[in-house]
Amino acid sequence: MDVHELIRSFDDEFSRIGAKREQYGDVCGYPLVAYRLGDGARRGYVSAGMHGDEPAGPLALLELLREGFFKPTGISWVICPVLNPTGLALAQRENHQGEDLNRDYLSRRTDEVAGHARWLDGASYDFALSLHEDWESTGFYYYEINQGEDCPERYALISAAVGEVMQMEPEQVIDDHNVRKPGWIYHECEPDEPERWPEAIFLAKIGCPLSFTFETPSSAPLELRVQAHKAAMRSALAVCLP
Q: Which residues are catalytic?
């Protein structure tokens, strides 16, 4: 993947709709960028590209951007679409130093996470959406961290939307987590490994009450994974709006 070209594409598309570009760091010549747009009362955070062997997330965000997804009334968006540019360039999970960024949000040893976490500190979001992929799954699944009112109806909307594209993951245990319903992991607001915080736990700890981490199966065709992420994002927007 040409990551410089990918970032330029995000720059161009966000600029076209009047988003504000913010650079919170750089690594190996790649800018670490985020975009802000909208002035709604609800505050939404979106991220992708955390793992370099998971290209469907950034590509789905780019397609959604071109289709006008990030312009609904009532939301102030913050979007970080390429969290791990060196990993994407190398098509590997970790960054160029062999570090898994999604386990570094407590220690903050890596430049990428140190800059990102510092930039996020003190921010406040009503919901967060993160796009990932999984080499071990055969269907779509997601993690939900919910510090507010339990709302099982959200699962029906998300699973129905994604089901138009691919099946929900059928296993009863996914990544060592029991599922609540097929493809739905209802995760507590604590990390699986105390010293290795992922982004979703960090966001919860700084006050984000609701997050969804979407996972598509890496074994599926890329375009199918992109479409599944887009379906999940559109359904999540419906359940996150008041």
A: 215
Q: Give the E-state strand segments of the chain in sequence order.
A: 20-27, 30-37, 42-47, 75-80, 127-134, 141-146, 173-174, 177-178, 184-187, 210-217
Range 101-124 average pLDDT = 95
Predicted confidence (pLDDT) per residue in 54-98, tens digit: 999 999 999 999 999 998 778 999 999 999 999 999 999 999 999
**Distance (Å, rounded) from C-alpha 140 to C-alpha 167?**
6
The owner of tokens 């493809």 is: 183
Lookup: tokens for 236:
């999540």
Top-level CATH class of 3-240? alpha beta
What confidence tier does 242 reach under pLDDT thresholds 50, 70, 90?
low
Q: Largest alpha-carbon pair distance within the chain?
A: 44
- In angstroms, the CA 5 to CA 192 distance is 35
Burial class from Cβ neighbours inside 10 Å (0-12, 13-18, 19+) for residue 183 reads: buried
